[in-house]
Structure formats: structure tokens, C-alpha cells
Design brief:
- There is one protein chain.
- This protein is α/β, with parallel strands linked by helices.
- Helix content is 33%, strand content 13%.
- The chain has 19 helices and 20 strands.
- It has helices at residues 5-12, 17-28, 53-72, 83-94, 103-109, 127-132, 142-154, 170-173, 204-217, 311-320, 349-357, 361-373, 395-412, 416-421, 439-444, 502-506, 540-561, 570-585, 613-619, and strands at 134-138, 157-161, 224-225, 228-236, 241-248, 254-259, 261-264, 287-289, 303-307, 326-330, 337-339, 434-436, 449-452, 456-459, 464-466, 476-479, 493-495, 524-526, 566-568, 628-630.
- The strands form six sheets. A five-stranded parallel beta sheet has the order 3-2-1-7-18. A five-stranded parallel beta sheet has the order 8-16-9-10-13, with no helix packed on it.
- Strand 14 (456-459) and strand 15 form a beta hairpin.
- Helix 2 (17-28) packs across helix 3 (53-72).
Length: 631
């Protein structure tokens, strides 16, 4: 690598300066910078952490000679911070105290300790013993790929069953215009497979290429049965194994697999939900769900009804509106819109250079992105005891609400009727917040886009008819209405010990121990299962990796004890879910009266993880034999 000082200075214009400042400490060992006058502080929506332009310029100027010396090959101080110094550097970076309980997590994130691999802990078992234990993984999306990779590292035999013709899961199925990730991409990636992402929030084709490349690179493809759907899982109590009934999606051959364990990697967002609108099938024109986008339908010059204003509509409508004759948006409740200026931006060449060439910078940058969208945002969605102010659940939450209202007024202040439709009456965090750089609000102001809040009463041959009796004559209907989230593992039938049907057992309220194991269903493991969804837009990839680590610990317990199966104890499971419910009750999304896909029909939050990401990371680092019954 080679760059002169001018090129380095130009690249640094694109630096995240707080991450750069801590990188300088890591490169030089100058801990005095931690007590200097330039200190990052948390400012919602500001990735530069409140640093003034003058402060940023000073840090960039200070970095030029340090990086230039690296480029010239000069001997540099070999500073390896202690765990306590890493904690202090992280606290400085994120603008708030980071506790000692984060030390192990931090050391791995900044590269001072390796992340675990699937092989860890399996070295003492004979290769033929591991290979004789066979696992069936259902799904080859994000979670299925990491499960397969880790099992392969451990030497555990596995087969992946995938209903689609290729890997990728949600990134294969969702091809609607504008589809992109809404988690910062530098944290939405596997710990074992970093990538130099082209955008801060990359588009669907880029994400699909990433997961397909991982499947190829890690030798997973040859173990996948594509275009094959699991219809039924049945636990054989005599043999303590699962029988997996499959069928070809084209209606062809059926078959069975025998598995010592099954991992469900189908997740929460895989089966589209169509709304229960009377006469829905009466519409004469084409209609489809955003997750099953029909690219054969030409939209240019058409009158289009889009039902729903959630995440997929938020991304698709700005792309289809410019070419449409008219777009009619039907909104049940508005989303909170979180300003993110870089939402559609490419990562500039200078930032790419820094991430790829400056030691430690990429790791500190990833840590900051994680913190801003996870641990550092939790205080804003937690409820204060005794708080009764409508529209918020606490002091910090009210502060966030006012900031988001200002953002909406900035874009819609000259359109008071539209502004009123775009300010939610629920607390921020009550439903999924959406990132925007102004594109959404600008789209709503287009003369050919009409936002309607009158509920749809029925569907006619011509289009939606609202409760007020207005009939919308349209050419196409697009449903942006989300997924069957509480019907986890749908449409598979899962029969466990004693002939227990999982869906009947759950009764519309899915629960699992640590989101992974379920009483009555030995050796059945879930990834992205009950109460493992994350709301403040941290990376679900991290939770899936945690879940896989926990599954591997469970498999080691089986091999250690010589058992055929393990099953979570009911009282352990129940106590854990009481703790989960108590945590969700003190969040914005758990507030009474707020309807969302996070809750089931009874109002219980079945999807979300309510605590720190660290807490989930810690509880999945090992499996306690006392939590399980072995056979």
C-alpha cells in the first residue's frame, strides 16, 4: 500500500473522527488523548459524536503524520492496550461509561482476542463420533449459513433443506425496488467474513451477493437440498431422533431424512401476511405482496394502490412513484422517521482506503456503529416508572420524540395536513423506526402521491373502498403488509415428545429458552426464534451468531454425556420467559395500546429481545447442563 500525505489527508476528510481518534491512541499508545479537550459525546443521529468541524480538522491533521509513517514503513510503537485500557478507550469513543462486564466482548470486537469458531471445544471428540451426529438445518438464509459454517468447522455432519433455488433467504426473496438493509452495513456482516461494503446501507443485490459468496467460500452449497420444503418434523421417542418429511416445491418427489438434531433457521420474517380485507380477491387487476414482487407487472403510467407504510413501502414507493400516474398510500399508523443523511450514499473512496489500510480503524468504526444503534440507544426506548405523558414512555424517550418531530417539521412544515398524518401518536420505539435521508417525506409531497388514513373497508373490482365510502380506481394493488411473525416455523408441522404439536403448544404465543430450545421438543433448536428480534436497528447477524454458539455448546453437552437427546426443563423455560416479559413490559414497544407485529393478538411481545445485546451474548456463551434433561 502506498499513499503520500496529500492523498492521506484527502482520505481523512471522509473519516469517522471519533473512530479515528481512538485509532490514533491504539496506534501510538498516547493515552493522554483520553483526557484531552476533544471528547466525543452522544448526539442522536450524529455519527461524528458532537465534534465540531474545528475539532475534526485537528484530529485529521494529527493523524496524517502517524499514518504516513506507517506508509513509509517506519517503526511504530507496539502498543497493546490492556483490557482496562480497551474499556476506557471504548467509553471515550461512545461518549458514555462502558462497564467491566463488556471487557470480554470488547477484546473480541477490537481484535485483541479471536472470535470463537465452530471447532472450539470439539477437539477432544473423535472425528467419526462427530460425523455420526447428523443435523438438519431448515433454511439457507443468513442464520442457516452461519449454522452450516460453524457445524462444518466442528466436524458435525449436516444437511441444509432450502425451499428456494438458491441461498440468501430474505435477500433472495425480497426484490422489490429500493430494497436495502436498514442496519449499518459494517455491523450487518458475519464476524468471520468482513466485507468492504459499497454503501453505508447496501442494496438487496449486494447483500444477496455477500451471502451467496459466503455459501460458496465456506463449502456449504454441496450440502444444500435446494427447491425442497420441510413439511413435517416428527420426533421418534424410541430412537431419540427426528424424522424430517420433505417435498419438492414443484410438487414432485417427497422424502424423509433422519436427524439427531434439527435447527430451524427460517426466522421470523419469511412468510408474507396478506390483510383480512373483505373481498380482497375481487380486485380485477394484478396484485402482489412486496416480498413476492411481480416484476412482470409494468408500473409506469399506472394508478397504484400501496397498502401499508412500513419498511418495504418506505423503500419501494420512492422508487415507483416518479414513473407512476398516481400512487395511493393507505396508512394504518405512521412510522417514526429517523434521520440518517447517509442512508442512500455510497461509501467514498477515502473511507474505503481508511477501512482497508489503517490498522485498527475498521474495528473501532464497527464498534461505534454497533453501539450507536444498539446499547447506546436503549435508554431512549426504556420506560420510566410512573411516566404517564401520552406519546412517550419516559424522559429520554420524550427527548427523542421531540427530535423526530423536528425532523418531520423540517420536511413537511409547509404541508400541515400531511405533517399531521406523519406524526405518530405512540412513543418512538413502539413500532419499527425507519431510516431516511429526506427521500420519504419528499416522495409524500409529490403531486401524484396521495396519503390516505381512512381505513379500508373492502376491496372492489376497481380497488380499495374506504370506511367513508370513497372508492379508488386503480390498476395495481401492492400489499406492504409484513409477515406472519407469530406463526413461527409456519407452515411446518412440528410433532415433539408425546405427540405434542408445536403450534398447538404455543397457541399463538411462541416462547423458547434463550430463543433457542423448547420443552417437549428435544434436540430442536431455533435461530432468530422467539424474542430474539432487535428493535433499535442493531445487527440481527450478531444474535444469530450467538444462537449458533449456544447450539454448539448444547451439542457438546450431548457428546460429553453420551446422551441421545437433551430437552429444556419446563421450569427453567418458564422462569426465563417471565424475565423476558418483564423486560418487554418496560419498553416503548411493550406499552399497552400499541399495535405492531412485535405482539401477538393477546398483546404479548413475542418477537423482541428487551435487554442489552451484551446480555444475550453472555448467556449464549455456554450451556448449563442443569437446564436440561438428558436421555
Amino acid at each position: 500500500m502506498s499513499a503520500d500525505r496529500g492523498a492521506i489527508a484527502a482520505a481523512l476528510e471522509h473519516a469517522n473522527v471519533p473512530a479515528l481518534l481512538v485509532t490514533l491512541i491504539h496506534l501510538t499508545g498516547d493515552l493522554g488523548l483520553l483526557d484531552g479537550p476533544i471528547r466525543p459525546r452522544q448526539v442522536w443521529g450524529d455519527s461524528q459524536m458532537g465534534l465540531t468541524e474545528q475539532q475534526r480538522a485537528e484530529v485529521r491533521a494529527r493523524a496524517v503524520p502517524v499514518i504516513a509513517a506507517l506508509e513509509d514503513g517506519a517503526e511504530q510503537p507496539r502498543f497493546r492496550p490492556s483490557p482496562e485500557q480497551v474499556r476506557d478507550m471504548a467509553s471515550f469513543l461512545v461518549g458514555q461509561a462502558v462497564g467491566d462486564d463488556y471487557l470480554e466482548f470488547l477484546l473480541r470486537e477490537v481484535g485483541l482476542k479471536p472470535h470463537p469458531t465452530g471447532a472450539d471445544g470439539f477437539e477432544g471428540f473423535a472425528a467419526n463420533q462427530r460425523a455420526a451426529f447428523h443435523v438438519v438445518i431448515v433454511g439457507a438464509g443468513m442464520s442457516g449459513i452461519v449454522a452450516a459454517h460453524r457445524l462444518g468447522q466442528a466436524g458435525i455432519s449436516y444437511t441444509v433443506v432450502e425451499k428456494n433455488a438458491d441461498v440468501g433467504g430474505t435477500w433472495l426473496e425480497n426484490t422489490y425496488p429500493g430494497c436495502r438493509v436498514d442496519t449499518p452495513n459494517h455491523s450487518y456482516s458475519y464476524s468471520f467474513a468482513p466485507r468492504d461494503w459499497p454503501q453505508y446501507f447496501s442494496a438487496q443485490p449486494v447483500l444477496l451477493d455477500y451471502f451467496q459468496d459466503c455459501a460458496t467460500r465456506f463449502g456449504i452449497r454441496d450440502r444444500i437440498r435446494f427447491s425442497t420444503e420441510v413439511e413435517r418434523l416428527v420426533f421418534d421417542e424410541e430412537q431419540q431422533v427426528w424424522t424430517v418429511h420433505t417435498r419438492a416445491v414443484d410438487g414432485g418427489t417427497t422424502g424423509t431424512l433422519r436427524a439427531n438434531a434439527v435447527i430451524s433457521a427460517v426466522g421470523q420474517l419469511n412468510r408474507p401476511r396478506l390483510p383480512d380485507i373483505p373481498g380482497r380477491d375481487a380486485f380485477r387487476g394484478p396484485s402482489f405482496h412486496t416480498a413476492r414482487w411481480d416484476h412482470r407487472v409494468a408500473l409506469a403510467g399506472k394508478r397504484i394502490a400501496v397498502i401499508g407504510t412500513g419498511a418495504s413501502a418506505f423503500q419501494a414507493v420512492p422508487r415507483i412513484a416518479p414513473g407512476a400516474a398516481e400512487v395511493f398510500l393507505f396508512q394504518r399508523s405512521p412510522p417514526w422517521v429517523n434521520p440518517r443523511p447517509e442512508y442512500h450514499r455510497d461509501v467514498p473512496a477515502g473511507k474505503h482506503w481508511l477501512l482497508n489500510n489503517v490498522p485498527h480503524y475498521a474495528r473501532w468504526y464497527r464498534l461505534l456503529q454497533f453501539w450507536l444503534s444498539a446499547e447506546g440507544a436503549l435508554d431512549y426506548i426504556y420506560a420510566d416508572d410512573g411516566w404517564d405523558e401520552p406519546g412517550s414512555v419516559g424522559k429520554a424517550n420524550r427527548k427523542l420524540r421531540r427530535m423526530l418531530e423536528r425532523h418531520a417539521r423540517k420536511h413537511l412544515g409547509e404541508h400541515p395536513e400531511l405533517l399531521a398524518k406523519c406524526i405518530p401518536d405512540y412513543a418512538p420505539g413502539g413500532k419499527r423506526m425507519l431510516y431516511d435521508d429526506g427521500t420519504w417525506f419528499d416522495t409524500l409531497k409529490r403531486p401524484n402521491v396521495h396519503l390516505t388514513t381512512d381505513p379500508i373497508a373492502r376491496m372492489s373490482e376497481r380497488g380499495p373502498v374506504t370506511a367513508a365510502g370513497e372508492c379508488f380506481d386503480v390498476d395495481v394493488v401492492i400489499y406492504a403488509t409484513g409477515f406472519r411473525t407469530t406463526d413461527m416455523l409456519f407452515p411446518m408441522q412440528v410433532i415433539g415428545r408425546g405427540g405434542t404439536d408445536l403450534r398447538e403448544s404455543w397457541q399463538g404465543s411462541p416462547r423458547a429458552y434463550r430463543g433457542v430450545t423448547i420443552p417437549g421438543f428435544p434436540n430442536l433448536f431455533c435461530l432468530y426464534g422467539p424474542n430474539t428480534n432487535v428493535v433499535v436497528n442493531t445487527s440481527i447477524v450478531i444474535l444469530s451468531e450467538c444462537g449458533v454458539d449456544y447450539i454448539l455448546h448444547c451439542l457438546r453437552l450431548l457428546l460429553d454425556t453420551g446422551s441421545r437427546s437433551l430437552e429444556c426443563r419446563q421450569q427453567v423455560h418458564d422462569a426465563y420467559n417471565e424475565w423476558i416479559d418483564a423486560g418487554n413490559a418496560r419498553t416503548a414497544w411493550g406499552a399497552p395500546g400499541v399495535r405492531s407485529w412485535y405482539k401477538n393478538d393477546g398483546g404479548r411481545v413475542t418477537q423482541n429481545w428487551p435487554y442489552r445485546l451484551l446480555d444475550y451474548w453472555q448467556q449464549t456463551r455456554s450451556a448449563d447442563a442443569a437446564d436440561y434433561r438428558f436421555r
